[in-house]
Specification:
Two copies of one chain form a homodimer. Chain A has about 400 residues and is α/β, with parallel strands linked by helices. Chain A has helices at about 15-20, 40-45, 60, 125-150, 165-185, 210-220, 315-330, 365-380, 385-400, and strands spanning about 5-10, 25-30, 35, 55-60, 70-75, 75-80, 85-90, 95, 100, 105, 155-160, 195-200, 225-230, 235, 240-245, 245-250, 250-255, 260, 280, 285, 290-295, 300, 345-350, 355-360, 360-365.
């Protein structure tokens, strides 16, 4: 009997975890890039603290020791359920017995796609490298203008969205601006730098306990970040952004607000929610096919509290393991226990020696939460090399305030 | 009295060394990038062994502790000797009392500029990152074609130019192909990979002693590189290259042959040689201005043997120090001792545990030369962080054969 052919779309946390756990099947893992990226640290590449190869790992290398997994680098353009095949941009279609769909999501502009060029988001390594380039060039240009004309142009960064990504970017920018960039740009002073974190809702870090949201605001204010709550963005142009009826001049707007699941999901012919996520059943399959799974932030799965599970790495990884278990043991549709997410807590960093953490009823802030954040992130990085490189970069930056990856090319 | 204004064009080895040695003047260092790049290791970025930030250092950080040096990131478009100013692309002209011109060189195609898109060279970090992308995509595509059609397309790399850069690229590619890429691309076998080093002259490494050239050929052959001597390239198309009347199919041609000095030198109104280098006097100045210096591979300076000095880092660094000394002590034109180059030897690596070294009459090959190469290159890297990162990457690669920087973005 031929082995079951399992095709996995996407080498993010969900797809990668599933592929690693599938030991018996003939697995084809398709990704449009050649690497898995550790998304929780992507903002550190965007803010020039880490290099791309510190937090990414070639998929082929991950699966060197697992010969049942074949890696294909290509774009999946459609899922054809009639022929049970995925259609690729550059190569021949690949047929499947079982399909794991984990293509992730992109940032969404709430119907204002024209904002994208002025307010790039941060989902992929390419996004991070471009954001880094924009940031470094913004400092260069501000220094140059100051030296020539002494103009009062401020270097204003506006970060849209008060979730963990927005908070982490704002905190990192404030720190780099104050501690690392200062000595490098003699014509700029601290007053020239303005970092504004804009949140449409009533508080930042809405997934955390309200007391932690308040503490995060205090920590950000202390670092010099302006936090504007209840402030939806109304318009974004090339050189300014409108918030609460007021135009703020800024050429550096960063989008960390809405998400929209991959458009590939539209080809799967299954019910979707308003963010484009596929509404999966209790076993993470689509309603009319027990061997097509959708996982990660492409899936809309009702958690215990009636809300969909958040689009975070732990959910995707647990779903990947769950799906691999069903496939490994060929569990028939009526024998499957429902997927259950085990929430092990959340942690978001605000900068050097500052973070907020929430583990069940335990809340922590400050140095303790930050150390926890460091340990958790180092632990989940793939491979000894990356752990070692990231840790040594952090120690170096902690001691010297010289971020490691500020080379423009 | 106002301080002398010294403008330095280019933050390569010559310009950087001069700026660091100028302690009394008001120095403006202009570079079109924001970093100094350690060019001797650029081929390791191109072959995915090192990350860009491992071998580059932001110029602003280099001069943090030297407040008399101001860094400007811009393109110099012309040198205006009438107004004694350099004209910039994006900002106002900068006037000078003393000018140090060290813009380096670009690759030259001997009148065949149409070859450039098919045979990119390796001078800047951007070049290196693009070459790396081409190489990694070539392996991906070959693997994909093999898996689909089993075609006999070979993965052929043609490196044009048998100088140190060409030899180092050929050696590194052979090693990555054989040791690191093999396990990652299960459909490719060693026979699919073909690396051809093409040299127009009668031997590779012409700057070295002939016995070392011969040994380098042996080492390259041993690694599986085909070496073709006396073989000028006759034509390069998108998918093939003509050598000795024969078309070799290859979509991966790398140019490591001719150099041409920066076109900026044409605006200086001084005699140039056929490669565009300015013919400088014994004090490295242009004939009619004792305070305009040209150094590095932009300068044509007659060595003791009547040949121009080679365009290598030690020459540029010694020239930078010499020029800084003349400026620091305001040495008048008739009091200047001629510049004298001290040749401390040369070393070129062929791969893991393989190199050739020549220090005066001492010749070395193999492991000893390779250890020497490692030590010399680590020593000359700027900054503890980079030394540490590069060394740890080399140890990692030596032990695991997993090159560290294969992330495509």
């Amino acid at each position: 009997m031929a082995l079951t052919r399992v095709v996995i779309i996407g080498g993010g946390f969900g797809g990668l975890t599933a592929a690693r756990a599938l030991r018996h099947a003939d697995v084809i893992l398709i990704d449009r890039t050649n690497h898995h990226v550790f998304q929780p640290l992507l903002y550190q590449v965007a803010t020039a603290a880490l290099s791309p190869s510190d937090i990414a790992w070639p998929l082929r290398t991950v699966f060197r020791a697992q010969p049942n997994v074949r890696v294909v680098m290509d774009d999946v353009v459609a899922i054809d359920r009639t022929t049970r095949a995925v259609l690729l941009k550059d190569s021949a279609p690949i047929s499947f017995d079982t399909l794991v769909v984990s293509p992730g999501s992109r940032h969404a502009y709430f119907g204002h796609d024209d904002w994208e060029p002025f307010a790039p988001g941060l989902k992929t390594m390419r996004d991070a490298v471009r954001l880094r380039e924009r940031m470094l060039l913004a400092f260069e240009q501000a220094e140059q203008r100051r030296a020539e004309t002494g103009a009062q142009d401020r270097l204003t960064f506006v970060i849209v969205g008060g979730g963990p990504t927005g908070v982490e970017i704002a905190g990192a920018l404030a720190e780099i601006g104050r501690r690392a960039m200062g000595p490098d740009y003699p014509h700029l002073c601290l007053d020239d730098l303005s970092i504004i974190l804009v949140e449409a809702g009533p508080r930042i870090l809405p997934g955390f306990d309200p007391t932690l949201s308040t503490r995060a605001v205090t920590a950000l204010l202390h670092k010099g970040v302006t936090v504007r709550l209840n402030s939806p963005v109304e318009a974004i142009h090339a050189e300014s952004v409108m918030i609460g009826g007021e135009w703020i001049p800024s050429t550096n707007v960063i989008w960390a607000a809405g998400n929209k699941a991959s458009p590939l999901l539209d080809t799967i012919q299954a019910p979707q929610d308003s963010n484009g996520r596929v509404k999966v059943r209790a076993d993470l399959t689509i309603p009319d096919d027990p061997w097509i799974f959708v996982i990660g932030d492409a899936a809309h799965y009702q958690g215990g509290d009636g809300k969909p599970l958040p689009g975070i790495a732990p959910v995707a990884m647990q779903q990947g393991r769950y799906v691999a278990h069903l496939i490994n043991h060929n569990v028939s549709s009526d024998q499957r226990p429902p997927f259950r997410y085990t929430d092990r807590g959340m942690v978001a960093t605000i900068g050097r020696a500052q973070a907020v953490a929430q583990l069940g009823s335990i809340h922590a802030t400050g140095l303790l939460a930050w150390v926890l954040w460091c340990v958790v992130h180092i632990f989940f990085l793939i491979g000894f090399r990356n752990r070692f490189r990231v840790m040594s970069e952090w120690v170096w930056y902690y001691l010297t305030f010289k971020p490691g990856a500020r080379v423009l090319y």
